[in-house]
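Q: How would the structure tokens look for this protein?
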Amino acid sequence: MLPSSPPPPPTPAPVGARFFGLLGLGLLAVCAAYAALVLHHTPWAEARQLDAIFPFYKWRTRVFSAGELAAAWRLLAGSAAVFGTGALLLAAGAAGRAERRACWRELRTTASSLRRAVAQLPAHHKWGAAAALLALTVFRVVLSLPAVTPEYDDAASYTLFVSKGLLAVSAYYPLPNNHVLSNTISQLFYNVYPGFWWTMRLPVVLQAAVATAVLFVGLLRERVAFRPALLATGLFSLAQLSLYHVAVGRGYWLLTALAGVAFFSTLPLARGTTQPRAAWSLLVVSGVLGAYSVPTFALVLASSFTWLGWAFLRRKAAGAVAKTAAAGVIIAAASLLLYTPLMFVSGPGMLFGNGFVAPHPLAEFLAGWPRYLWESEGFLAGQVRVGALVTLAGLVGVFCMWRAARGGRLPPQVASAWQRLAPAALWFMAVPYAVLTVQRAFAPGRTLLYKAFFFFLLLALVIEWLLLLKRRPFRAFQPWLRSALGVTAVVWFGYQLVSLWRDNLAPRRNNAAYHAAFAWLASQPRGLVLVPEPTHSIFLRLYFLSERPAATWRLDGRPKPYTHYPYVVAFPERRGYFQPKLAGPPAFHNQEVDIYRVPDPGATKRPIEPAYWYLND
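A: Here is the predicted structure in token form.
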């Protein structure tokens, strides 16, 4: 007698208000509790010292009392309790338990489908993908070494935010340069060991490895064949902008990973899925974390939600449109809760008045838009001036594939992937530009890094199609096509490396000069140091924090009255705004740093100023 098969899992009830209530209230409770922890973490006196971190900013944090600080974290803690209680009440009872079980079952099914997508690969493909990821990770580790890619954009993150504690990371926001979630992760690493590479570079290499795996496995799950999936992920990972930002520890690879999760959650929701709870949960959570990584994640969300809205409206699914709106409200509310410490300490204007995406006058925007579009696409494709030609060639190939698909002439190996992915990839490529047009803003190219993946995905599908074509006149070129594509890829990748190396020559020289100044200063008798130039301040503090964490050197950006500074740091050749008037040559000199020894004028009861320094404000 054959054993009876296990009964099939029960069909879950349709996704309704209870699910979104549980998801929303639970997420809001977690975000409010975290924000309360951030504000409660630091005493008021320490919080009021945030402005001293970098005295060169004329901007100052909000003035708030100890009572206001306590009231803010109590309000957040109370909100967390209210949201958490609401979530527990919704989760209670038979309906709540069924909802939780259904969501957990769908998440496990989704995870199983990802594992199955990899397990179905032939053994040599699995080993090849693993070897490629390992080699790529080793290569990224080498690139992340400061001797190869010097401290540059991440130096300020390390010095001004990460090394100053959780409140500084979460709430000190003098300019939109604090990638809060990425710096929060780095702050955890800093608490283990304060070294610069360990704190800033290693977390980003790990984030990039996870992001690469997410993108590759996500493509496999969407029925993309092994070769185009590997090609799309590889081309994106080896583009110059991707290489630079995997070496420089900031939040753009974290944004890319979360954009990948949002994209691969949006696709099944738009076409209909048997795991809607898992997809909605992943979309909402990735949206909140992405917005907390870099505020311009709003471009990703705009792409996701307009794609979903269009799909649901075409099906006349009013209920699905309402669910989309509910998910958007949850993301917005939870993100604002996470940013509450920032808005309380630095003010809402620092979050919403982002100068990098400030609107331009209409005439100025229209005049600059063609060049911005051309250079942005070139930047993403690997060469800012002519890289957009690669984008144009890829889009021509996409148009030809579209015509072939309409005629039913696509090979089955690419037809399914084309139908499932190509329209959405084009949408995710184009919508950010539509949003920026409405804003009349020129967002920095690095904020669009994630978008390059969708182009390389389309390019990989075009290349796969060309390799599979057997029709005239392509048949005559088939023997040469693989070789031509291989040579093109080698030349393209070589250019990415050469450009990255060339662009880092000047920063490497400058960093070497700053480090030499630090090494000389660290070898001298300890004393107060006056460092009035912001660049010197950032780099000298970086090296002291990273390489001499136990040292107690004090570096002042602004001179204090009645204070003698044995060491005064300036740029050579009277560069910069600090022009010291000191007798004699500097005790230390290189192309970026002069350090003067200043004799003690003796114990005086007056401010020590015009005798030996001059600060030109």
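Strands lie at 529-530, 555-556, 567-570, 588-589, 594-597.

Residues 495 and 615 are 44 Å apart (CA to CA).

Upvote if useful.
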